[in-house]
Amino acid sequence: MTIRRTTLIAAATVLALSAVAACNDDTSAPSAAGGPVAQSANASGTPSAATPTATPTPTATPTPTATPTPTAPPSPAGAPVDASGAFDPAVALANPDRTPYAATLNMKTTATANGQGTVMTATGRTNVNTPGHEGRTETRMTLGGSDEPILWMESVNTGNGIFMRDKTKPGSTWGPTGDSEDATDDNGAGLYAKALVDAGPAARKGMEQKSGVPAFHLGARLTAAQIKAIDPEEHRNMTEKGVAAKDYDVWIDRAGRIVAQTQSMKIPKDGTTVTSVITVTYSDFGPRETFTVPTTGAS
User: What is the pLDDT of residue 294?
Assistant: First the structure.
């Protein structure tokens, strides 16, 4: 199964929409056997044709991967700051710090319609600016305000392979699900941030504290036509689902790193409108980390 940052958010929305439809139709919720697991978050958020796969069959224990050499934490170099600590986001984005680093990821996706809804969360630790985008995350999905997960997956990306297990099943085993090269780069939100800078002064919301660091807030409503120039695949998905625009906000630090992002849109479905909101934050920046191969077949 290909694990992509874009696919994560798209698949999260697809599951959420399916669950909302299930609520409205009084039918069963989506199966928890398999599903997307976060590696990191990208910009795309319109549902695609992604479908959760079955829990992979355990195989022999893979050969442990080489341990990446830790790097020093990235310095907050980049755009110069004035006496108040403010910086120009265009300068920060034009000169991003590409030093590898690790960050804590928190993502929340909600989808609501007619008083019914789902919540999907992804939490964990992930490397940024590394070839394999290594990390370890857990993804949970609940339905209708219940605390009982209908999906609960754990994923480890070692840099040479991606492994998953289904935590809704006691004693579930780890299984390989793809290559780390299937994980895309971390530039998706950066492309949207640049588009927001180009959107004009109204999109520049100013300096704010976000995830404990000074960050510049950019935000605007982007039409499908504007998104076509940024992300053609997302434009196609929006057009197919009848989505005319989405609200997008992103916070960057002076080194051009994405600190947080939020996107929201209204999706017509089965005679109603589903409101989808996705929030992502990165925090606790530090040196690149090592994520080891789980023992395949072990819980």
Answer: 84
Determine phi and psi for 108, rounding to 5 degrees: -135, 130
Structure tokens at 240: 């197919």
pLDDT tier at 167, thresholds 50, 70, 90: very high
What DSSP character marks residue 39?
S
CB atoms within 10 A of CB 247: 14
Q: Provide the 8-state DSSP code for 180.
A: G
pLDDT grade for 115, boundaries at 50, 70 and 90: confident
Residue 69 CB burial class (10 angstroms; 0-12, 13-18, ≥19): exposed
Q: Residue 270: what pLDDT? A: 87
Whole-number Å distance between alpha carbons of 204 and 226: 17
Q: Facing residues of 109 across strands?
A: 120, 278
Strand partners, 163: 156, 176
